[in-house]
Design brief:
The protein contains 5 helices and 8 strands. By secondary structure, it is α/β, with parallel strands linked by helices. It has one domain: Flavodoxin domain (Rossmann fold, 3-Layer(aba) Sandwich), CATH 3.40.50. The model has no long low-confidence stretch (mean pLDDT 95). It holds the Pfam family FMN_red.
């Protein structure tokens, strides 16, 4: 069986963001976990136009579509902004449709309350896109898992939750691949 391809999607593009730190830490654990090929997918690299304003032939939209189509599942690195996901993540989700369908996703969130509200909003959006999110949802607090709110220093206990999420993600991604 061909290995699965899992994209670790960074959900923020703002200056000074910490999502690359969280995403790289998750990728290190995922690479040790095995069972798939994992890669960081940074929304910032695609320069997506605001949904509805770019032509379908826009290079960023074409590259985004191709990247999503090449993936069997996702790990979303989600930060909470005003009790929800970032605008750029919502735009990236809306900028594709069938490329998301019948795939699985894990959610890793952070914020003042662990990003739980953002993750719950994301779950509703993923359901509409026919993406099955897995149950285990690692959360990180800005107060205890970050130094000065900008340097990611997760407690060791989070590693187990990441591996549990990956176990579920791999199982669901394999199962859903049979539908595509």
């Amino acid at each position: 069986m061909k290995p699965l391809n899992i994209g670790i999607i960074l959900g923020s593009t703002r200056q000074g963001r910490v999502s690359p730190q969280v995403g790289n830490w998750v990728k290190e654990i995922a690479d040790r976990h095995g069972d798939a090929n994992y890669e960081i997918v940074d929304i910032a690299d695609f320069r997506l136009p605001f949904f509805g304003e770019g032509a379908a032939e826009e290079p960023g939209l074409i590259a985004w579509s191709e990247k999503l189509s090449s993936l069997d599942g996702f790990v979303f690195i989600v930060q909470e902004y005003n009790h929800s996901i970032t605008g750029v993540l919502k735009n990236a989700l809306d900028s594709a449709r069938s490329e998301w369908n019948n795939k699985a996703a894990g959610i890793v969130s952070y914020g003042s309350t662990g990003g739980a509200r953002a993750a719950e909003h994301l779950r509703g959006i993923l359901g509409e896109l026919l993406v099955a999110d897995v149950r285990t949802h690692p959360t990180f607090s800005l107060f205890t898992d970050f130094e000065s709110f900008k340097t990611f220093k997760p407690a060791e206990l989070h590693v187990g939750k990441i591996n549990e999420m990956l176990d579920q993600l791999i199982a669901w991604s394999r199962a859903l691949k049979t539908l595509r």
